[in-house]
Design goal:
Blueprint lengths: L1 E11 L9 E7 L20 E4 H8 L6 E5 L7 H15 L2 E6 L4 H7 L5 E6 L2 H4 L5 H11 L3 E8 L5 H14 L3 E5 L8 H9 L5 E3 L3 H4 L4
Helix pairs in contact: 1-2, 2-3, 3-5
C-alpha cells in the first residue's frame, strides 16, 4: 500500500494547544474541502512522494521529535494507509501521533481512532471559508474523537457571527474539549479581544493563539 505524501519535515508546531513543541510533519496530499483561507500546498505534483509504509517509517524514525503530526490537506482521505502504517510501526516509533483534520470524515476516523493520541479538529466557519457549514459532521466526528485528547481549532476573521460562536461553544461544552481561536491570516480589522470574550462568556476553556510559525518564519 502507498500514499501520496507532499513532504516530511521537522519543525515547531505553530498552532493549537501544542504550539511551540517540536514535531515531525507528514503532509498528505488532497482535501475534501475548499477553504478560501487555505495557505497549504497539498496538491500532487512532480515532487510528491508515493511511499509505502516501510518507506515512511524509515524516513520519520530518523528525526528525534517525540510527536508526529499527520496533516494535509486532509490526512483521513488516506485512512487505510494510516491504519496500516500505525498498526505496523507505532510501537517501534514510540512517538505520539497527532492528527490534524477538518473534522468531517467521521467514518474514516473510526478506522484509526485507536492508533491516534491527539486530535486537532478544525471547525470550518462559513464566514471564514466561503464554503458551506459542516457542523453536523463535526458533531459526529467529536462523538468519536472526544474519547482522546481532542481540541477544536476555529479559524476566524471579523465576519464571524454570533450563531457560529454559539454552535462552536455548544459543541465544546457538550464534548468538554478546549477551543483554540486562530485569527485568519493576513490579519484584518477584527476586534480579537471582543470576539474572544464572546466565546469566553459561554465557555471558559478557550485560548487565542495565532499561527506562531508564520511570525517566526518557520515552515
Amino acid at each position: 500500500m502507498q500514499a501520496p505524501i507532499k513532504e516530511i519535515f521537522e519543525s515547531i508546531q505553530g498552532e493549537g494547544i501544542l504550539a511551540g513543541y517540536k514535531q515531525i510533519f507528514v503532509r498528505f496530499t488532497g482535501c475534501n474541502l475548499n477553504c478560501a483561507f487555505c495557505d497549504t500546498d497539498f496538491l500532487k505534483d512532480e515532487k510528491t512522494l508515493h511511499l509505502k509504509e516501510e518507506e515512511l517509517f524509515d524516513k520519520v524514525r530518523r528525526y528525534d521529535a517525540e510527536s508526529i503530526s499527520l496533516t494535509g490537506g486532509e490526512p483521513l482521505l488516506h485512512h487505510q494507509f494510516i491504519k496500516s502504517f500505525l498498526t505496523k510501526y507505532k510501537k517501534y516509533l514510540k512517538k505520539e501521533i497527532y492528527l490534524e483534520t477538518n473534522g468531517t470524515l467521521y467514518n474514516e476516523l473510526k478506522e484509526v481512532i485507536n492508533l491516534v493520541d491527539v486530535v486537532a479538529m478544525d471547525v470550518k466557519l462559513p464566514s471564514a471559508t466561503g464554503d458551506i457549514e459542516h457542523f453536523e459532521d463535526n458533531e459526529k466526528f467529536l462523538n468519536i474523537a472526544s474519547s482522546l485528547a481532542t481540541f477544536m481549532k476555529v479559524v476566524f476573521d471579523s465576519k464571524i457571527d454570533d450563531d457560529e460562536i454559539d454552535i462552536c461553544t455548544i459543541l465544546a461544552k457538550k464534548y468538554n474539549i478546549p477551543i483554540v481561536l486562530q485569527p485568519k491570516m493576513p490579519l484584518d480589522n477584527a476586534d480579537y479581544f471582543e470576539i474572544y470574550n464572546k466565546f469566553f462568556a459561554q465557555f471558559k476553556d478557550v485560548r487565542l493563539i495565532p499561527q506562531m510559525h508564520k511570525f517566526l518564519n518557520l515552515q
